[in-house]
Amino acid sequence: MNHAFVRRTGRSSKRDVLGRQASDFFAPSLAERYAEQDTYVLSTGKTLRDELELIRRENGDTGWYVTTKLPLDPTDDHPRPGLVSISHDLKTPRDDDADVLALARVIDHVRANLQRRMKVAELADVAGLTATQLDRRMKATFGVSPSKYVTRARVNRAAELLTETAEPLADVAVAAGFYDQANLTRQFARLTGETPAQFRSQHGIALRHPDQAP
User: 3-state SS of the chain: helix, strand, coil percent to 5?
Assistant: First the structure.
């Protein structure tokens, strides 16, 4: 953990935080949510990305953060699985909570509709904002425009399918919302630095020849 997290717990030293649970430092409603996220990542091995949530700030107030939690595989030195949690403070005044909730609706809508085309105007309607307002808020929160956020979400979904299934790349492309395999390969390589085939070779399930026994 870093010193920012230590200060957020109200403690002054990492020694006062190591080995403790969220319920030791945060309100029950917040601690339960953090524990649910950790359990999901540890039990499924899946990454949680762009979770909009309330976290207590250093001064004791709660504020909106964007959190990503990634699983860590066991090693010889650390035989138990773990996770990495990274939170970005949006520094949003509490009277702007409606803006954050609007972005949460957009995130949920994108995740539920990856397989079809989504225009920025549609996402703006979901958020209850103009296209310009949505673009400004998405860039301030996630560092990308709404259309690029959709592409990133599709690449994230493709990465999950590549590591969790042995589906052909063409089927992965369709399931993640890309036009075809070529479009998947181009966008995936641009964002990850690897082609889908290279990524699967490094992290995923090896495809069997049809004549091979399972």
Answer: 55, 15, 35
Per residue in 81-120, pLDDT (tens digit) is: 889 988 877 765 444 567 788 888 999 999 999 999 999 9
The reported pTM is 0.66
To which H or E segment does residue 55 belong? strand 48-56
* Separation between Cα atoms, residue 183 and residue 193, nearest integer Å: 15
Amino acid at residue number 150: V
- Assign 73 a pLDDT band (cuts: 50, 70, 90): confident
- The closest of 154, 94, 162, 103 to 127, measured between CA atoms, is 103
Closest CA to 87 of 5, 146, 21, 191: 5
